Amino acid sequence: MNDGDQKPVVGPTPPLSKARRQTNRRRFLRTVLLTGGVLGAALSGFLPLIYSQRKRLRPPGALDEKDFLASCIKCGQCVQVCPVQAIKLADLIDGMGVGTPYIDARQQACDFSCDAVQCVLACPTGTLTYHKPDFLTVRPGAALAAKPILLAKEKDPEPTLNMTERMGVARLTRPEACLAIQGKGFKGQTRGPDFKGTMRYMDVDRWKPIRIADHPYNVAECDLCVRECPLKGAISIETVFAPDGSKRKSPVVHEPCVGCGVCEMVCPVEPSCITIEARGVWKT
Amino acid sequence: MSQLLKRRFFEQIKVMFGAEPSKPTAIAPAAQAMHFYKKGNRDLIAEKLHARAHAEHKNSWRNRRWATLIVANLLFTFSFFLDIQILEGALTASRFVGFHLIDLNSALQVMLAHKHIINNLLIGTGTVLVLWVLLGGRTFCSWVCPYHLLAEWAEKIHLHLAKKRLLTDQTIDRRLRTFFWIIFALLALATGYTVFEAISPTGIVSRALIYGPGLALLWVLALLVFEVFFSRRAWCRYACPIGLTYGVVGIISPVRIKYKLAECFHEGDCRKVCLVPHVLDTVIKGRAVETEVPLGPDCTRCGLCVDTCPTGSLSFEIKGLSKLG
């Protein structure tokens, strides 16, 4: 190394002292620590999106999951307007979905007792919407053939719910346990005396949902899922042929099913024989 | 506004984004005369000691602020809990007797992630924008944000431990907040997820107060522990993009704290209680460029300095109203 390589003479700013440099370095490391901590926490929110096993059932009128998570502002106004408190907010385990609304149909389904899909009206960001923006596509089978007719207001001038897409579809997932298929009846409180779920019974009070436990049943052949379905033509009991050739009665889901989850909630068998496939589409 | 104050106005915006406040290169003659008068003035020192001895510590602004913050948050809670429907929703988005209100930072995240803006979102955001321009930008932080109150209590523990010499405040580079703001905006834009909303303690605490506690509070707890034992008010000072968003809104706000050089003894009590002491650099001996200097936009208008100042050299001011009076 020759003399020409010597460091240039100190410029206008004097060099920092050793102690000062050390302070600055430590401060830099702390800054990196906080950056890593906050970004790490934020990005860990992606993990549940990658590893989640089950899709959440979202409230009526929800955009497709990706757009749903993008647009939801996590304010819970949908939670507040729901007359049966069907909507809950997701917690930390949902990662990026923390604070977003979902429905656990078995615990409390959406029974449309608000008549007008209040949660859609309450949503400030269009995450729940009647009118999906044009640039978003509709998945095949998600669109409803016609606006669903709400049985509760079938006699009203406007009997339909303003929904164009389904939340999911009901599927008979455990036919072997279904009371209807076994030809059995049901007597008593479906889901037991401690069940907190509520529902509107038109023969009790159109505007006041009551506890399901306060509305016992006595049916010779179980048809609770059909009996309580709030929509017209979404499910019926049909005669079907079992594999052994014998005739059986069975609930059959039809195209107007929007996936509200009432059938899942009222099914007296534990666990439910009929469940909602969240985001499920109609397959012919 | 004088040329010197104008220069300071723009410098304070840079300071909000993370620059260190610099010593002024020029000072107005009136302020210069005052600085000179104060230098080694024995009468003033005697007066200062007298004022010091008789100063009674007030908490009036703090109490008003805490009351406002608690009432605002309880209004959310009770609107749902008692179904009185005055303020429905959470801090991220709500309806005040039917009018949409949407938090600016949350709205920004949603707009960037979803890339589609419906009317209600626009109306709510516009309303809140006007509201906080009028009320002082970061006023949101200290007068409404529920995390701010929790952090204030954590800060008390931190200061107690620091006084006992069990720890020292570990400062962090303030430019980090601007970095986070940009990163979270880009993440929302690129991934299509409102990434920041998942960790926003403001949203988490607000929802917990309204809809009941959840596991997400663990993240808030972690932040508070970090602030108690490591770095004083770290989230609000160095990380929170919401604070920066509202800070930008507050640049043109008429509500602010005004500093009067004449009354000041330069003891620095105000800087010790302040969340953002860089806005109070003007109280340092010889720094004030004019005899009256308004504080910069990063100020949360919390009023702690107003309460603390024994000589009343800091006070709330609404720009333009003094001219009317």
Key terms for this structure?
heterodimer, A: 284 residues, alpha+beta, two-stranded antiparallel sheet, B: 325 residues, mainly alpha, 2 domains, three-stranded antiparallel sheet, 17 helices, 57% helix, 8% strand
How would you explain this protein's 3D organization?
Helix content of chain A is 21%, strand content 14%. With 284 residues, chain A is an alpha+beta fold. In chain A, the strands form 5 sheets. A two-stranded antiparallel ribbon of chain A has the order 1-2. In chain A, strands 3-10 form a two-stranded antiparallel ribbon. In chain A, strands 4-7 form a two-stranded antiparallel ribbon. In chain A, a hairpin with a 5-residue loop joins strand 8 and strand 9. Chain A is elongated and about 95 Å long. The mean pLDDT of chain A is 91. Chain B is mainly alpha-helical. In chain B, the strands form 2 sheets. Chain B has a 3-stranded antiparallel sheet with strand order 1-2-3. Chain B has a 3-stranded antiparallel sheet with strand order 5-4-6, with no helix packed on it. In chain B, helix 4 packs across helix 11, helix 5 runs parallel beside helix 9 and helix 9 crosses helix 14. Chain B starts with a helix and ends with a helix. The model of chain B has no long low-confidence stretch (mean pLDDT 93). The interface between A and B is large, with 45 and 57 residues.
